[in-house]
Amino acid sequence: MKFKLLTVLIAGMFLAVSFQSDAQKSNILIEKGLAYLASTQSTSKGFDAMGGTSIDPNAIPNFDSKAVGDWGGAGISALALQAFLQNGHNIDDPVYGTVVTNAITYILSMQYTSGYHTGAFGNWSVGYETGMCIEALNMALNLPLSGGGGKPDPLKTQLENAIALGVNYYTQDINETWSRVSWRYDRGYTSTSSGDMSVNQWVYLALDAAGYTDKDVWNKIYTYLHDYKCASGAGSRIGYQNCNTRPQGMSCAGCWGAVLAGDHSVAAAPALADEFYNYLDGFSLAQLINSSSIGSNQIYVGGGYFYYLYGFAKAMVLGNKTIFGTDNGPWYEFMYNAIESYHGTDGNGNYYWDNWGGQGTNMETALALLCLQVREVPEGSKMVVSLDTDPNGKDDCLGFTIYDEVGNAAGKNEGNWYTNIPNSEWTSTTGDFYELTVDLEESANFSVEITNTCLDPQVSELCFKTYLLDELKDEECYLLEDQAYLVTIGATAFVNAIGGLNIIIVVPPTPIPVMELDPAVIAFNPFEYDHLYEFSFNVMETGGETPLSDIDLFASDLVDQYANVVPAANFTLTPSHIDAILPGEFVTVQGTVTTPASFTKADFGLFQGNITAQTGDQTKGINFEIGAPEMTIDPVTALVPSTSGSTAFDISFAGLQEIGWSIDFAETWITAVPMAGNGDATVTVNYAANPAPVERVAVLTITAPDADNTEATFTITQEASTSTADQVITLEAGWLGVSSYILPEAPALEVVLAGIEDQMEIMLSSSGFYWPSHNINLIGDWDTYLGYKIKMNEPTVLEMFGVPAETSVTFPAGVNYLPVLVPDPVAAADVLDLASGALLYAFNIQDQLVYWPGGGIATLETLEPGIGYLLWLTDEATFNFAGKTTAGPQQVQPFVNTTTWNDPINTGTPHIISINTSAMGNLVAGDVIGAFNSTGVCVGMAGYTDDKNNLSLVVNGQDVTSTANIGMADGEPISFKLYNVANGETNLSVTFDPVFNTGTFEAMGVSMITDMKAGALGIGTNTVDFNIYPNPSNGVFNIQSDAANITVINSQGQIVHQATIAGSSTLDLSHLGQGIYYIRVVNKTGLTVEKIAIK
């Protein structure tokens, strides 16, 4: 199996795993803490003695049944819910979606909807819990779903209404005349002075989260803080209800209120916030953070240590503090170390916190996680990582690669700078300065690896910087001197908004061994239920200087796009821990993963995750996937102009397998490059100019048998041409073939033929007809890529306006009409021979010229614009007029009828007969061979000149628009006569080639005569005693004859007179017009036909 060339690990592949050292531990703390909370959430109603949520030390715990989604009451459940939401887990999350959904449902159920406490959440301590719930529900409302978009209704409306009702619970009792306001256990305590700061802080957060903007209320909040503060050293403190009660914890709450009041336009509030921060800044970080260093009177024991610590961390975030305390240290790193040291581990290996005070492990664990989490950073936050190399050194000596916390990389590969880190770009890659800028959306880890590939030692400066709205907020820079040949230096920085875009250097620049994993990708396709997949990989040290040590190996869940999960527990890795790998050595790890027997979802897709190898200073991963990747085409459509040009689309596949694909299309006006490939590719589509006045569409089908969706399409629509042209077509009276090389501006037949409708009778296509005098149109619009057969009653011209058509056309097997798609005549053989063996014949209707290679006839020499040619194809064939030899119009010599027979009428319905040269041995120049229907009407004749070529004889069928007996019906026998000037008429007995029709009429059919013999005398041998005179006459003729029936036929084959005669009689035809007529005489001894003329 082929895989994509990897220089990086793909974003989104790694689930809840961060890739760098202590920052890795930070995410492990969060993930293991969330796993603990998920395990302690109630999943069914049951008796629970810890149902009470009051953080009032004097309150009596609530002994009650515990509802689904509950962690110990509304307040604690709200804090726990925030921990999941702040880590990005939502109701549609594949791992914790059910936990989040149940928590939201439970909290909504805990709101009073009637009575005195309408709007409050909780039971014993609604003053605290309502604020906690408002903040959690607001976060749930505004956090985008994992799959994108916001909360659906009715949940969205439920959340909005619950938040509004909760805010009203706090604000409904505020008197406009009050100068200040505070809150306590329930609304009955709302007053100017009866509240306490432990409740106030949650009200402040709730009002701010809900977007409460009443400046008068925020002024009252500020005034309460101002009035109840006490000067202390360089700042001011505030206590629970007085300045001497829990001032350290409550001054953090004072920071919350003062900062938020300032955010809501209370002008004096920022100065008050500075007073509180100054007070806190008088303590060391140990006094502010270490539980053993905090006096019992400094924080609220009812809430517990982490209740205080969250207040402190939140105060630091709201104040955008980076360093703090009398020791001016990095408060977040100090706090992180403390939280890490205090965690406990349950029987499942998950982490919890329960230091002292508070309401048990659920509440303390939720608050510890909230201290560690702040996913969102202020809008306009940026992280910049740069390397300034020695300008006198060689630019290509230092390999510089930056990794984000999931392993996405940015660096240089084969001379090209690339980045796969989301929201990032190289802002400098020139000279000796290389800089990557990342638009931050959340806290993140960034690590670098710098390798010297030159023999000489190199000097460089590595910097990590953060900016907010282009203002520098923090920076950490290191001068790297004398980096030796092939030495790799690694460093890791952690930026977290809870520290005000504070950069924490987790791993300072240090030479590290180089760990690599091989292969970089492990993939199986297809996915199978309940299947054991076996694999192996190598963990290698490639730096060659120092060993790798203490390597942990673990797998993540495999998750597909439908949120189906193959749990990490289904993996086995042997070994799962490697003590050491010596320089240049490797260890092979054997692994298996077993897929579940079923999923709750009906569909499954491409399962993706990773296997991670982690040491104390670096982490590398293998991308792991099972299943067929989805194929994506981008874009799926393109609109292009009428002129020639090119466009492109991308083929991409989810995951890392190199999936094979190919392209197919039917249209001839496009080409695609490449037509096949493996994996991601860009396909260029070239298109020819569109000569038509209508747009055209081509569909390219991309087939990838090993993809999840085995077929996809790209559709290209080309605009209509705006160029114009015109064509004038001469139409004689009678049956004709007609065509055009113009795509008409208005293709409706009623418009195209409007100028000739009075002169035309009918027009036929291979599938319908247009008969304007009967208001019948079974053709539709004029199609330039089809020819037509038309009957004209009078000669005229047809003029057509539009744009030139394409020069190629394809027809199926059967009878068709070929248009001439160029403005100049071309040699017939050049075009018709393109059909090779598929062409039986081509026929010029108006001149009855034939191109029949198998019949040895080629009287049709030129294809002329304006004419449509009857084709009979035995298979599909394509005819292309482009680039063919131009020829002059074919000169056709009209046939002169020297016989006594009537002139055959061209009915547009031919039966073509080839008289082989072998049958013409007894003929002499000037002889005429005629074909007759059963009533004796001549329906076709051919004059003999020589026997160099087969002779073409076209027999005409019935005219579909006439009832006159002027042609032949299908299946009617054809009789033949020879006319010789000297000897008159002779019946012919003919022999047919049995491969073709053998003597009966077939519309569009063909026959071949291989032999002819003169038979008994027929109508030309006076077997009937008949004499007519004078001939010509003025219309009155004398007849001498035995008893006979006579029929007079005009030159169009129409019967104009019938009578019975005997002996001498007079035939009066003076009522007929001048012209040639034929009189057919039939008696008991035979029949004869005589030509007569009326002067």
What's a concise summary of this model?
By secondary structure, this protein is α+β, with helices and mostly antiparallel strands. It is 17% helix and 36% strand.
What does this structure look like?
The chain is an alpha+beta fold. It folds into seven domains: 21-49 and 61-172, no CATH class; 381-511, Lipoxygenase-1; 515-627, Sandwich (Immunoglobulin-like), CATH 2.60.40; 631-718, Immunoglobulins (Immunoglobulin-like, Sandwich), CATH 2.60.40; 727-880, no CATH class; 910-1014, Sandwich (Immunoglobulin-like); 1026-1094, Immunoglobulin-like (Sandwich), CATH 2.60.40. It is built from 15 helices and 68 strands. A seven-stranded mixed sheet has the order 59-58-61-62-63-57-60, with no helix packed on it. A six-stranded antiparallel sheet has the order 12-11-10-15-18-19, with helices on one face. Strand 16 and strand 17 form a beta hairpin. Helix 2 (74-86) packs antiparallel against helix 3 (97-109). The longest helix is centred in the first third of the chain and has 20 residues, at 21-40. The protein starts with 20 loop residues before the first helix and ends with a strand. Mean pLDDT is 86; it is low at 1-26, 46-65 and 1016-1022.
